[in-house]
Amino acid sequence: MLYFLISCVSFILLSKSFTHKPIKSSWVGKLNLLSTWLWGEISSFLVSWFRKSRIVLASFRVPTSPPLKNMSGSLKVENVEEKERISLLDLPDLTLECIFERLSPVGLCSMAGVCTSLREKCTSDHLWKKHMKQRWDGVLGDAAYREWRSHIASSRRFSLSDQNKKRGLCESLCNLWPLSWIRIRSPKLENSSKARSRLPADSIMGLYLSLESGKFWFPAQVYNRENGHVGFMLSCYDALLSYDSQTDTFQARYSPHARRTIEDNIQWDRLRAPPIDTPPNMLHESDCLHDLKPGDHIEIQWRRNREFPYGWWYGVVGHLESCDGIENRCSCHYSEDWVGVVAEMVILEFNQYTPGSRWRRTMINRKEHREEGNEADGFYGGIRKLYHQDEISMWKRRWPTRVLD
C-alpha cells in the first residue's frame, strides 16, 4: 500500500512539473482527464481498504460485554479489557509457589527458560529438594554429596586456571600488537552477556541435572555385583555410578583391585546409599558386638586379601555348638561359667551356603574382634547389626534360587 501511494504521488508531481514547460494544447486536456481519473481511483481504493481493515480488526476482537450506546461506555469496556489481560508474573508469590510446586522437573526447566524472573524462581533449591528426594533419596548418601562438592570445587579451579591461561595469552598478544590501546566493545554483546545468568553449579537443580545427564559419577553400593555372580551373592560393594537416561539403568566402576571393574545395565533396586560413612578400604569400628545374640541379622565386612576393598555380606548370628538351639533354653549370649556375663565367642552363619562349606560359618571374639582371617578363607572385618525390617527385607529379596557350595 505504501509503495502504491508513493508511486502515485511521484506521478502527480511529475505531471505538475510539465506545466513549467510549454506543451501542446491537445495534451492539456488529456492530462487533466488523467489526473481526475487517478484521484478518483485513489480515493475509492482508500475508502474500500479502510472498510476492509475495519472489518478484519472487528473479527479479531472478542467482546467481553454487550455493546454500549454512548462513547463513555465504550471507553469503560476498553479499560476493563486492558485490566483483564493479566500476566503470569502479576500473580501473587504464594500462587506462583503453588503452581511451581506442582510442576515436574521438565516443567520447571521449561518455565525457567521463559524470562529472568521465572528463572530465579524455578531454580530455587526449595523447589528441587522434593524432586531430589523422590527420585534419588535411596541412592545418594553423605559420600555422594561430598563427592559433588569436591566435583564443583575442582570444576571451579579448572575454569579459573583456564581463564588465567587465556587471559595471559591475550595480554601477551596485546603487548605485541602495536595498536593494543584500541578496545572494541559492543554494547549489545555486553548487555546480552549480563542478561544471561548461568545456573549456580552448587545448586540442587545443578546436581539433579548432572545426575540425570550421567555426567556426574557418584559413590553408592551395588547388591550382588556382576549381575548376581555366584562369588558375590548376598553381598554389597562400593562403586562409582553413572545414570543412563536412555535405558533407565546405571553403569558401575568398581575398585581396580577387583576381578571386574565395569558393569552395565544395573537396575535401581540393586543400588543403595552407603548406610555408614566408612570407606571400602578401612575397617569399620563395630559398636554392636556386646548386643549380638542368636537370630540377629548382621552385615559384616569381608575381603579376599588385604589388597582388595571390603564388601558387605549378609548373615545371621547362630548358636554355639554346645546349645541345642531352643530359644527358651538358649544361653549363647551368656557365659556358662558366670551367670550374667556375656559370652566371648559369637557364631556367624551364612545360610546361602550348604552345610559343611567353609563359607557357611565363622567365629569371632566379641571382646577382641578386629580383622580376622587368612589368605585362604579371606578376612572378616567390622560388623553392623540390622535393626530395621526394610533392610532385612532388602537382603531376603536377593536370596539365591539355589544353595551355594
TrEMBL record:
Q: One Pfam family name from the record? A: F-box
InterPro entries according to UniProt: F-box-like_dom_sf, F-box_dom
Q: Where is the F-box domain?
A: 85-131
Query: Could you tell me what this protein is called?
Result: F-box domain-containing protein
Q: What is the species listed in this Swiss-Prot or TrEMBL entry?
A: Ziziphus jujuba var. spinosa
